[in-house]
């Protein structure tokens, strides 16, 4: 296996989470009696460019084609984040009715709908047909395609180029990351701006977020490495922001190398120095992560076994991809967690891959009155605890597994 950016042979294992099914491959009741396909989940660090990456064990078109279980609009905090982004970008870059906004991985139109409200022309690009269909129902023009150089050339041949080109939580999802960035260079207007948001590798390591590793995430990104990739395609990162979303993310701003209308912000040098000082460009920084994950595994399994012996009931909230990584790495099944609640109807009445824990509606919480609710999407902890505050009525408690097991 070689690095998907610089082609250096990969020799350094960052973490090995053994084997796991694809994180969003939810099962029907009928499928519980059928064999499941497991894929290796071993992550490598490139010693040349420090791109942390998993091999494409399951092809991206198999993961994202057809029905997809994740709909962005089910998180109220994420919708608020999207609305705030639209207001800021509209004001900062003077977007209006003569502008063109293009979002890659536009999902169900969760973000572009706010540009539409401002009468700013939009185009969504989304490979999953079921989420794209929801966006189209909202009158958001959407192409059901994968993005790269090929599609970019088709769009510019039709006269479509972007004043603002954006993508939230997609950069880590593309196996051909160089082709993806090259496509963005092609479709961007001469004075256009790119913004991309992605979970920050520094936060993953510092806060033991190993559960954000799954087959959909082909890359785990630092600012240093992303800067190299963009520069290789003639794009300059002129600004960067650290965000709280998804446990700690970056929002990068890029432009053509030839376009000097956007000066490089001091924030670029500040973050580069922060990553260097933290150790992200030193292989020693990546050592020991396996042991940090193992500690969480032991904490969680010990907790669940203790509650089982005491006759307590534990359920989970949020059938998130990160939750499936956590449960499968820890070897947890439906004998220790009775069910998981999720607001997304596409996941309800199905079962989590490998663990076979049933996914149910929120009404099951009041009916069962569990002693503990394990919050799997810990990045939405505050939102979920506010939503489910009523479990305190019967003495229920919340449990958060990452970065270490905490009862709240």
From TrEMBL:
GO MF assignments: methyltransferase activity
One Pfam family per UniProt: Methyltransf_13
Keywords associated with the record: Methyltransferase, Transferase
Domain Methyltransferase putative zinc binding: 3-64
An example Gene Ontology biological process: methylation
Keyword Methyltransferase among record annotations: yes
Domain of life: Bacteria
Domain C-methyltransferase: 245-403
Name by which UniProt lists this protein: Methyltransferase domain-containing protein
Organism listed in the record: Larkinella knui
High-level lineage: Bacteria, Pseudomonadati, Bacteroidota, Cytophagia, Cytophagales
């Amino acid at each position: 296996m070689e690095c998907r950016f610089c082609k250096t042979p990969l020799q350094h294992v960052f973490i090995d989470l053994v084997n796991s099914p694809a994180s969003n491959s939810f099962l029907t009741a009928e499928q519980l009696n059928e064999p499941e396909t497991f894929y290796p989940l071993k992550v490598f660090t490139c010693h040349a460019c420090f791109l942390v990456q998993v091999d494409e064990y399951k092809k991206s078109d198999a993961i994202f084609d057809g029905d997809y279980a994740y709909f962005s609009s089910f998180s109220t905090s994420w919708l608020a984040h999207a609305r705030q982004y639209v207001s800021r970008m509209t004001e900062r870059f003077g977007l209006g009715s003569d502008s063109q906004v293009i979002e890659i991985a536009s999902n169900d139109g969760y973000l572009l709908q706010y540009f539409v409200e401002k009468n700013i022309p939009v185009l969504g690009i989304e490979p999953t047909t079921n989420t794209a269909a929801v966006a189209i129902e909202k009158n958001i023009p959407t192409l059901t395609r994968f993005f790269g150089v090929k599609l970019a050339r088709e769009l510019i041949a039709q006269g479509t180029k972007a004043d603002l080109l954006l993508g939230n939580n997609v950069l880590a999802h593309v196996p051909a990351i160089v082709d993806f960035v090259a496509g963005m260079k092609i479709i961007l207007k001469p004075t256009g701006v790119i913004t991309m948001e992605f979970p920050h590798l520094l936060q993953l390591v510092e806060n033991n977020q190993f559960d954000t590793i799954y087959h959909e995430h082909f890359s785990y990104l630092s600012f240093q490495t992303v800067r190299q990739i963009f520069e290789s395609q003639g794009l300059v990162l002129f600004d960067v922001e650290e965000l709280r979303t998804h446990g700690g993310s970056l929002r990068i701003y890029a432009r053509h190398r030839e376009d000097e209308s956007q000066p490089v912000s001091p924030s670029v040098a500040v973050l580069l120095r922060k990553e260097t000082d933290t150790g992200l460009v030193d292989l020693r920084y990546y050592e020991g992560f396996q042991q940090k994950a193992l500690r969480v595994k032991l904490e969680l399994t010990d907790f669940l076994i203790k509650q089982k012996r005491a006759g307590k009931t534990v359920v989970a909230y949020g059938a998130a991809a990160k939750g499936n990584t956590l449960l499968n790495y820890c070897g947890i099944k439906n004998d220790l967690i009775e069910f998981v609640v999720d607001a997304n109807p596409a996941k309800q009445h199905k079962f989590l891959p490998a663990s076979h824990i049933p996914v149910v509606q929120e009404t099951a919480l009041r009916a069962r009155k569990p002693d503990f609710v394990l919050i799997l999407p810990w990045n939405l902890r505050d939102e979920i605890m506010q939503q489910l505050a009523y479990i305190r009525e019967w003495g229920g408690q919340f449990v958060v597994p990452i970065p270490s097991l905490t009862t709240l």
